[in-house]
């Protein structure tokens, strides 16, 4: 795969987690996790199964709440926000969930229109134009009337992506966007994440088990282990790191990938 021209990070973080402690009862998921994500970058989060990657994304959307520490999104500390105050923040953050999560009984059109309507958009002409635009952006023009069951796995992921960008978010979260796809679709979806990031000027946080895709698209990589981020940095720096912990981690991931 050809690799992206990496973007250097600059400015104030658009997403920032500080000293985050989070768990479920006796299970401790994070103890003192810190992470800064900068405007416009693609940051990929890698880590073992169960290390807390999905939990991390859900903390940014406040679908889950940490026990202590702060989470900032676009300058706002959302730690103590109630659901009402989260609404405008959620509008800035789009998420492609781990299992695609399209409504099977709704057409592609209705799947993409749904979150727009839920947030109070009721101008049908606007919705129709927006649905057309985002389907065009993901390379699936004209499939509005189809049902999810009529689409391939790769097309479903791209529709989920179209839905996530419909509200023009500032931050896009992707939870394993390429899992379960064949190599051609892995590449297609990876290239799409990259081109949307550059075209829409969004900040993208991607969780993946796919190292090849991570190397291809990421400006920076962050590794989750031991209940925190153990390493973060520019993709090439981490990829060729001499740090034994980073090297062991990447070769274990590479092994896991080959074993799949
Ligand atoms: N809602 C929940 N209630 C209780 N435990 C949870 C909940 N969500 C996650 N967990 C637990 O938190 C830990 C981290 O889960 P998470 O889903 O973030 O892992 P992950 O890194 O995304 O794994 P995978 O790569 O398999 O998707 C796991 O032990 C999981 O069982
Ligand atoms: Mg997960």
Topology of helices and strands:
Elements: E1 15-24, E2 27-37, E3 42-47, H1 53-60, E4 68-73, E5 76-77, H2 83-91, E6 93-96, H3 108-118, H4 124-137, H5 153-165, E7 171-175, H6 183-200, E8 203-207, H7 211-217, E9 220-225, E10 228-234, H8 235-239, H9 244-259
- The amount of beta strand, in percent, is 15-25%
Helix content: 25-40%
How many independent structural domains? Answer: 2
Q: Tally the helices: what do you get?
A: 9
End-to-end distance = 19 Å
CATH C-level name of the largest domain: Alpha Beta
Listed once per kind, the bound small molecules are:
adenosine-5'-triphosphate, magnesium ion
Rg, please? Answer: 18 Å
In spatial order, strands of the major sheet run: 6-7-8-3-9-10
Average residue pLDDT: 92
- Largest sheet features: 6 strands, mixed
Helix/strand-derived category reads alpha/beta
CATH T-level fold name of the largest domain: Rossmann fold
Total number of strands = 10
The quaternary structure here is: single chain
Q: Give the CATH H-level superfamily of the largest domain.
A: P-loop containing nucleotide triphosphate hydrolases
Unreliable stretches (pLDDT < 50, length at least 5) are none
Query: N-to-C SSE series?
Result: EEEHEEHEHHHEHEHEEHH
